[in-house]
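Quarterly update, task 2.4: flavin-adenine dinucleotide-bound model.
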Amino acid sequence: MNPLQSIHGWGRFPVIEAKGVAPLDMSGVKVAVQDHGVGGMIARGLGRSYGDSSLAKFVVETRYLNHILDFDSDTGMVTCNAGISLATLLEVFVPKGWFLPVTPGTKHITLGGAVASDVHGKNHHVSGCFCKYVECIELLTGPDNVLHCSRTSHPELFHASCGGMGLTGIILSVTLRLKPVSSAYIDQQTIKVSNLSEVLALFEANHAATYSVAWIDSLATGSALGRSLLMTGEHSSGNMLAGPDKHPITIPADMPSSLLNRFSIKLFNSLYYNRITKKEVKKRVHYEPFFYPLDGIQHWNRLYGKNGFTQYQFVISKEAGQEGMNRILKEIAASGKGSFLAVLKAFGKQNSNYLSFPLEGYTLALDFKIEEGLFPLLEHLDAMVLDYGGRIYLTKDVRMSEKTFRQSYPRWQEFQAIREQYGTIGIFSSYQSRRLGLDT
Amino acid sequence: MKKILIIGATSAIAEATARRYAKKGSKLYLIARNGERLATLATDLKIRGASSVDTALLDVNERGSQGPVLEQATKTLGLIDVALIAHGTLGDQKGCEQDAEKALLEFETNAVSTLALLTRLATIFEKQHAGTIAVISSVAGDRGRPSNYVYGTAKAAITTFCEGLQARLFKSGVHVLIIKPGLVATPMTEGLSLPAMLVAEPDLVARDIVRAIEKRTDTLYTPWFWKYIMAIIIHIPTALFKKANL
Ligand SMILES: Cc1cc2nc3c(=O)[nH]c(=O)nc-3n(C[C@H](O)[C@H](O)[C@H](O)COP(=O)(O)OP(=O)(O)OC[C@H]3O[C@@H](n4cnc5c(N)ncnc54)[C@H](O)[C@@H]3O)c2cc1C
Ligand SMILES: NC(=O)c1ccc[n+]([C@@H]2O[C@H](COP(=O)([O-])OP(=O)(O)OC[C@H]3O[C@@H](n4cnc5c(N)ncnc54)[C@H](OP(=O)(O)O)[C@@H]3O)[C@@H](O)[C@H]2O)c1
């Protein structure tokens, strides 16, 4: 067992002292779970969740459980240990003509983390969440209990674990259906959009696009409220499976957070928006810059300084659409606490996993540096989000109240009942699950 | 298609190196003592592109088994392009200070077993008149330090032994690579409080190893800056060095 270490999520807030163990194989995981300390334990992948989802006094780190266990080159069905990263999967399988069916905005997450957060990508409106492509998982619910979970075997435990934030146990391996592609490139179209109603209309109009997302200038006000760049993408045809090998640049240490003030963010957003002078630009780009623009800068989370930051990602119902977004954006713009990059996306239908985040409507994600007055602002936004039939994404959350959680994740009791049945309450728990009243 | 033999194949550094060779479609022969992990690794490497992966179990301290295992490996691979020796234990320095047997066991695992393996491999490679024998030593062998001198002594033994081999096997066209990693994030260093700036990922070390094998480098410090750190460390006067808590 390792000594105490300081750990944190991607937002670098909060920082806690924890004991960690990084098992080398399945028997190592069992031993770790057997000797877990008091205070509950949680699985931890690459720590890309922003808040306190993967924080506990005792963490089981999956970094050495990174092997590919099986692959069927006819069907694209792959089984891996849960600690393998999406980056590795891409590196190995893109040259063979297979792509991730769903990918978040960074490839530096583990397969276990992708399942536990039931992550979504730019294709949610047509393809749904990650777990839709998960055939089955091996789940450890106790030292002597490893269960094979799928839609037919322990189905309720399967649906609770998909998006279950590690609270049902440790996912040991995942069987995933990859998606065939003939190229590593994406045909990207960028449309310059001058306001909110235009961008929402364009999401509708581009419903058939495989990928779509908008980068929105959260500080623009008045008639420019919601000005953005809408990007859509399709996998290119033509046999181009290889790609350029680029090395990311690194942010070496904490940047003084004063670098990120209202002025610099405004300037950045403005430059970003005006980067494109034409109304529409079409380009063929490698999948890396299309899906993972921020992965090009390692440790970019250090840009927010040593107090850290949080990402506020909410969804509101489709009916609330324009009016809701309009009001929330105004509120954010007025607060002046805007963010570098705000990402807007239209979601498709919600799935049957108990705690999955997406529901049909619009989602917006913004970064806020941790500072005085931020949490009251977010509380205030929470209330508006709830009014518009929405909720906050658990894997980004670091401060939502128990009440907000219960109201916006109405299936939480069913989720708890399954945890109760499999005996994982209080055993697998995180700072977040305690804050949300799922554990004590 | 290269033929690669790896001893201590389940080590994190060896695994990262094997993955790089697998990607190139190499033929691999892996030797390790943990059967479960060895089998998992073999499957992983096959899917990643290795043209074949064979395995054998060996606790390197069972010296009587070394010969037969290597014989089987040469039978399977034929001519060996690269043999990499990667096993090792960091050991419990404090424990070794109190217990001579314990200290000798560490020396057995980190030095004696390796010297025996090297002797056997030298014979095989000398007959081949080609190929690379690569051995993971350590910067710890460059100067004895109170925090790990038992381990460091073993690594120093390997380094010196390999220097001799380099000169001997050069005449037969065989390349001997001494690998001196600095600090690497692997199970061996798990839980130690190390300066994050100085700790490298195994894949970076693996990249350097593969490159040094291609370039027929004699001694590799990896990452590169350890060459300079160690140049300073070995020149610190003993009178000062004794007082510093390294
Ligand atoms: C730059 C960036 C962009 C992002 N973009 C998106 C996006 O577009 N869409 C999206 O959905 N998300 C996005 N995310 C969030 C990220 O995909 C999720 O937080 C993901 O879960 C992180 O995975 P991880 O391996 O780092 O897990 P961690 O952060 O370590 O853990 C996250 C949760 O998963 C659980 N977990 C991890 N491994 C296991 C396991 N083996 N068994 C059981 N539970 C486990 C943990 O307990 C925790 O609750 C983004 C994050 C970043 C930093
Ligand atoms: N990590 C560093 O900072 C660092 C720095 C300098 C040098 N090195 C050297 O790099 C090499 C690789 O180590 P690593 O960092 O990759 O650590 P690692 O992952 O812990 O690997 C060590 C390997 O040695 C094997 N081993 C130990 N005793 C053995 C025995 N008697 N018989 C067979 N195998 C045995 C272990 O097998 P099991 O898994 O079965 O225990 C394990 O696979 C070692 O020689 C080490 O000394 C490491």
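Highlight for this quarter: Chain A touches chain B at residues 1-3, 5, 20, 22, 24-27, 64, 67-71, 81, 92 (CB under 8 Å).
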